[in-house]
Write a structure and sequence with these properties.
By secondary structure, this protein is α/β, with parallel strands linked by helices. It has two domains: about 5-65, no CATH class; about 70-270, Rossmann fold. Helices cover about 40% and strands about 15% of the residues. It is built from nine helices and six strands. Strands 1-3-2-4-5-6 form a six-stranded mixed β-sheet, with helices on both faces. One of its GO terms (cellular component) is ethanolamine ammonia-lyase complex. It is found in: Bacterial microcompartment. Catalyzes the deamination of various vicinal amino-alcohols to oxo compounds. Allows this organism to utilize ethanolamine as the sole source of nitrogen and carbon in the presence of external vitamin B12.
Amino acid sequence: MGSHKRQALDNKTVTSTPDNVTEGPWDTLRTLTPARIGLGHAGTSLPTAAQLDFQFAHAQARDAVHLPFDHASLAESLEAKGMDCLLLHSAATDRHLYLQRPDLGRKLDDASATMLDEQASTRAEPYDLAIVIADGLSALAIHRHAIPFVERLLEQIDGENWSLAPITLVQEGRVAVADEIGQRLNARMTVILIGERPGLSSPDSLGLYFTYGPKVGLNDAHRNCISNVRLEGLSYPMAAHRLHYLMREACRRQLSGVNLKDDADMQTLASETGDTLSNFLLP
């Protein structure tokens, strides 16, 4: 192996020498997107650098799926910022079972259910909002983005005077586990922060799922999703702005899901331009 390739491997990146890679007309588009386009070719094959980068991204995605969720440390950090937390676990006892049995990740184990029932019994009035944090398929996304996003969200809704349930952190949790949590806590609204399935360019993408009137048995049609929350995707302020808009509209209309559209960007643009905007897809 030549010194050029050996040095590149030591630095965790491999670059093909310029004289053996034929670039295509889409090469300049690589500056605009992380998508794998305009990679060029070496003969009839992908360049070595592109092939190794693909394999490395795939390994990162696999690692993100199996990374353990450090929910205890996350709870300590949230509590240090003045937020009450409850540590819960789904009915999936370990990661292997979680991946094999999606249904078990959608419900709590007995100990967690009892804990929530006891918490709800200490309060006469229902909570307005329950924030749930679950590892999902990428604990890495939660470790990186949960705290800064929660802080931004709480700043965004500070003027609403909504009562907040303790933040629940669920190990081996899936999206629908928030329905049971909201129902047991008697919360009007739930939002779950969950690690999305890792992609080849985004092993740490955070997803938000919002539900008005949570209860066991709801399907995806009753939820609103905000995805790709991360530094290279949807920013924390914009995600919090969109979620706040959905919450306010849900309270006004008493619904969520497919009947509640995210017009937050249109409302913001209209206020800046003074124009009245509408959805061009609607008559």
